[in-house]
Structure prediction request, 434 residues.
Amino acid sequence: MNQPATPPSGEQDSSPAQGAADAPAQEPADSGRALNRNVLAVSATSFLTDVSSDMVMTLVPLFLANVLGVRTALIGVIEGLAEATASLLKIASGWISDRWGSRKWPAVAGYTISTLSKPFYAIATTWGMVAGVRWADRVGKGIRTAPRDALVADSVAPAARGFAFGFQRAADTAGALLGLLIALLIVNRLQAAGQTLAWSTFRTVALVSVIPAVLAVLVLAGFTRDVPLGSKRAAPAVRLRGWGRSFSSLLAIVALFELGNSSDAFLVLRAQEAGLSVTGILGVMVLFNALYALISTPAGALSDRIGRKKVILFGWILYAVTYAGFGLAAHPWQIWALYVLYALYYGASYGTAKALIADLVPAQQRGSAYGAYNAVLGLVDLPASLLAGLLWQGVGPWHGLGPAAPFLFGAAVSALAALLFWRWSAQPPAPAAT
Prediction:
């Protein structure tokens, strides 16, 4: 996802689309620095939040399947509905942050809601309670994500955006790595190499996860500052046409890709089905996040030099190959190898995609644009995860097509989306109204 499809070799992100998008914004005093105060504080918040989230979220599908006996179709509904119900909030929170001219406080509110939900995992004893806690956590994520991303985009110069978003994603992933290591230590101490997860182990991990979540809120509230966006404006209309044809068509392609990108909970269940113990699953997730953290910043910086589209397209192709591999995997060592490829996909695609969106839309509409982008990811996650669960274990008397089916389906859909994205090109957005 990038500048015009055929830029001259070595061309930087100084396309007409980017210039038009950035013209109305007031540059922050330290925007020339990719790692300024806001970027560092947001990255620290992401780090602490993922220490908390990944400690418990990696174990949630195992808790549902091993302790509560929930089938994959229902797990898909729980995961997908949590994302989908938060999706409209992603649009609303982005719009509000544009309207108020504030990115900081909507983001703080979202992180606070997620933090308040965490202790309730420790007392959940039914799948309905788990779904409720999961929903509350995703509501918080829906509120915070678009304003947080807009704050990062507003805080740096265009030429440094890829690096800034890559650094933020690397911090996010480093936090996940630490969280998984803490969870691994707890699991290893309480149940060693058990093949299935015990309820008491899950409860202990959930309680410990509250501590870094609280610290994350304090860091964001205490160390970030809003960037002035220029003159006061009327509330921006949430319309695709106002963001330009390139952004609208990009969202359609992303929606198709996400249809084949079911919840990562299914990867965890697939790893267990292939023979990994609970500690083995946490170990492979540690490897995944370590690689992801190492790749994100260089991949973002590379997109600043060669263009966003090439980097993301590479990631999408890797995704298709990786999901095909998960469909065919039969041994634990293959799961480990596939998670290496999956880390390359994540590192190349996630932060770079957010940098691309900042290139495509006017500065004063970025909150709404990030909201729309994240809403697409969330809304499509429900049918994607539900379909994956049905393909795996079916529903009622139908027992599905087996564990390979959702991954082979995902590989085919993502390959088609990559082909469409290869043909996609950016056009300059309409100038922001004044």
